[in-house]
Write a structure and sequence with these properties.
binds adenosine-5'-triphosphate, 4-stranded antiparallel beta sheet, binds magnesium ion, Rossmann fold, 35% helix, 224 residues, globular
Amino acid sequence: MSEAPAGICRGVSRVYQAADSYVQALDHVDAEFRTGVMTALVGPSGSGKSSLLRILSGLDRPSYGEVEVGGVMISELRKGARRRARKKLIGYVFQRPSENLISYLNLRDHMTLAAQMRGGVGTREIIHMLDLLGIAHLRGHRPDELSGGEQQRLAFAQAALGAPPLLVADEPTAELDHGSAAALLEVVERIAERGTAVVFATHDPVVAERAGVTIRLESGRRVG
Ligand SMILES: Nc1ncnc2c1ncn2[C@@H]1O[C@H](COP(=O)(O)OP(=O)(O)OP(=O)(O)O)[C@@H](O)[C@H]1O
Ligand SMILES: [Mg+2]
């Protein structure tokens, strides 16, 4: 018997209102994200990848349609309730390492802060996560003392604390070379295997190939 997907988009549309026009960034997108699976979201620039990830992660709401994460209909929640649900249910990793990290905190402090934000995460879980991502030896380092790949590992380590049902990353490897990108995704796969659905956007076919499932967008529509 297969369990319910950790994340579900049903008929998700997003219309942005620009100064004197409307942009339909997403057009009735249906998608499911299953625990233990890494999904790559691909498509040309402007096809709606970031828009979908923002909606899936509760940072934005759909104009039409619904989003369910960990059994909670997050698209129906108001801002405050959505923020609380997001903290518990969703990890988010931005493209630029610097957006995920705080320059004056070392790696250990980042993890302590992330554990406090998520709640219910103890020291053992932090140590386990740092071992899983291979960055335990860098505990005392600040972001500017880490490579880009190590910074993104830390970003994923924070986002995955407490095993949220869903982890969303928008082009997490865009600023990494192929070797570091491949190494990062190898450890991200371990995060998925621990019991999280992982979805990331990418322009890189080599990176997309590492995912178990690929979803393709074109002009806001799902085409694959
Ligand atoms: N806040 C906004 N206001 C108006 N239009 C927007 C806004 N955000 C995105 N768009 C438009 O929505 C469409 C989808 O943008 P989105 O950023 O989701 O694409 P993307 O697939 O992530 O592109 P890229 O690969 O370049 O990151 C584009 O036409 C974009 O210009
Ligand atoms: Mg984008």
